[in-house]
Amino acid sequence: MLLGSFSTCAKTNRTLLLKPRLRMVGLCCANCWPPKLPIHRNSFTKMLFGVDYVIRELKPSDRINSFKTGAAAFAPLKSFLRNQAKDFHTGNIAKTYVAIKLLVDKDVPVIEPVEDDVSGILGYLTLTCSEIDIRNGYALEDCQYANRYESLPAVKIARLAVDERYRGVRVGENLVSIALAIAADVIAPAVGCRFVVTDAKSEAVKFYTRTGFTLLDTDVNRQSETPVMFIDLLPLMTE
Asked: Any long-range contacts for 115-120 (C-beta under 8 Å, 24+ apart)?
């Protein structure tokens, strides 16, 4: 399933979602486009000096061995992609979505994306079902009886990583946007699901805060090495 095509401008570091498949969209880098250049939802055009990629479900044929996470703290993310992600995906335990670089001529608009089979995966996101205990950390004003429960339903970002060679061009932010779109537009309308959650590594807390997540405000969670962070989906669904 192709979820969206993205083009990231190196000049402003903003992103244009060129082929949206869900309600959530990236930021439009309007300043970098010539005023008269048309932008069509069913096509994508390379942005000069930018990075073009699609986000879609992981395939058995995807090249994963070239993925580089850099720091040792992120080594488990590389190990999961190499050793478990495909089995978990086909076994319906956790679904992985990958950002794949495109081969695009900057002067020639095309109808369908052509993937760069050499570059492999720029970044990936793994989602699974989960729950969150919000007691003493967050209260639901709209559904107060739910505050009595020990846990409430959530979608969990179980893994999120970007190849160290492609950091700084909003690949990670767009993967989070896709996670929120899947949760808010596909899952929550069909079954009870109020939150997107993640257990953030200390190195990733600032990133998740920047993308809209909130640290669960309890003493135990604040002292954790991998604190729980969350987004309440209801405000997104009512926008």
From this structure: 115/54, 117/63, 119/66, 120/62, 120/63, 120/64, 120/65, 120/66, 120/67
What's the average model confidence in pLDDT over 42-67? 69
Amino acid at position 105, single letter = D
pTM of the full structure = 0.78
> How far apart are the C-alpha atoms of 51 and 45, rounded to whole Å?
11
CB within 8 Å of 150: residues ≥ 6 apart: 133, 135
The confidence score (pLDDT) of residue 120 equals 79
Q: 3-class SS at 15? A: strand
Per-residue pLDDT tens digits for 88-100: 999 999 999 999 8
How far is residue 209's CA from residue 200's CA, in Å, rounded to a whole number? 10
